[in-house]
Amino acid sequence: MRSLITLAASAALLSAAALAADDAGAAIRVVRDDEGRQIRLDLRAAINVEGYRRIIAGTVHGDEVEDVTFRVVPEGRVGIACLSEDALACYAADPGVRPVIVIPGRAPSRVRNVLVHEYGHHIDRSYDHRLAPPDFDGTARWWSRRQMGQRLSSRNVAWDYSRGWGRSIAEIFAEDYAVLNTPRGPFDIFWLDRPSQATREAMRQDILAPMGLSRQRLGPAWVNRAAGRTITFTVATAKRRLVVVTRVRNKRGSRAVRTTVSCAGGRFVRNSLAGRNRVGTIRISGAPSGRCELMIAAGRNPVLYETTVLHKR
Ligand SMILES: [Zn+2]
Q: Could you write out the DSSP letters of every residue in the chain?
């Protein structure tokens, strides 16, 4: 069991772009959860579709279930599909590419634990509450219940696998999420107590009534002096905080870029990036609901940028 998740863990760092390229033999089947959300299955092995659907639909989840593809491959081919010889399941995600969960074709009762653990990584990536690193940071109430801030500063846990699989924040979250969905199921973080009822309830709230950041990604795209770009995005309900982060992605050449944000209600903020800076951040407090415009312009040379808009509820 441990090796299984360890391997799934290492595969969490996979590039989804590499996996996306492998579309031979895809047979897409869309089923629905009990609220009618789409669950996208990419079937490359014969399975009990209803059994798999029931596991996914039965997890604590929200609209993020529509954003991921569940790729089911023959048992012996998971390693190839995960680009990692020994992997038994994996989650792969990259900016701008649809995330993929690769799982083996088995009897549903035997796939449940790996499937729910990997889905925990998707939950983690879908519900942000910190600005950096933004992807695998658990969820807001869970973070505080599990005292991850203190554990991180005392080097008890790490963002990556440098302190071992069981000390990676992403894996602790995925294991806690597995226990949330299967209270009597396995829990492979041996140095830590199983998540308490209160921690599990906090996670459930984080997913059903999130209070962290939600995120919109814009780009990557090129911009130059002659052709600036205006991107519009919507703030659905008034937010305490809106953070617009622009990253320059081109490795060489000019990095000079100017971004301007204006939102309904007349708030207007500017930010300029030049020299060695690659990341520019604009913070807007008390963002009103409505449409916002983000204008990006470059200096003399074209710049490849990507913008992330984080909504703090
Ligand atoms: Zn994992």
A: -HHHHHHHHHGGGB-HHHHHT--TT--EEEEE-TT--EEEEEESS---HHHHHHHHHHSS--GGGGG-EEEEEEGGGHHHHTTSTT-S-EEEEETTEEEEEEEEE--HHHHHHHHHHHHHHHHHHHSB--SSS-SS---HHHHHHTTHHHHHHTTSSBSSSTT-GGGBHHHHHHHHHHHHH-TTS----TTSPPPPHHHHHHHHHHHHS--SEEEEEEEEEEE-SSS-EEEEEEESS-EEEEEEEEEE--SSS---EEEEEEETTS-EEEEEE-TT--EEEEEEEEEPSEEEEEEEEE-SS-EEEEEEEEEE-
C-alpha 233 to ligand 1 mean position (Å) = 33
| Mean pLDDT (whole number) for 71-85 | 92
Which one of 3.40.50.720, 2.60.120.590, 2.60.120.380, 3.30.70.1290 gives the CATH number of domain 213-312? 2.60.120.380
Ligand 1: centre distance to CA 124 (Å)? 11
pTM over 0.85: no
**For residue 121, how far is its CA from the centre of ligand 1 (angstroms)?**
7
What is the 7 CA–ligand 1 centroid distance (Å)?
A: 8
Residue boundaries of the structural domains of the chain: 2-208, 213-312
C-alpha 8 – ligand 1 centre gap (Å): 5
How far apart are the CA of 12 and the centre of ligand 1, in A?
6
pLDDT, tens only, 237-263: 665 567 777 877 777 776 678 888 887
The tens digit of pLDDT for each residue in 209-230 reads 876 666 666 777 788 776 777 8
Going from the Cα of 9 to the center of ligand 1, the distance in angstroms, rounded, reads 4
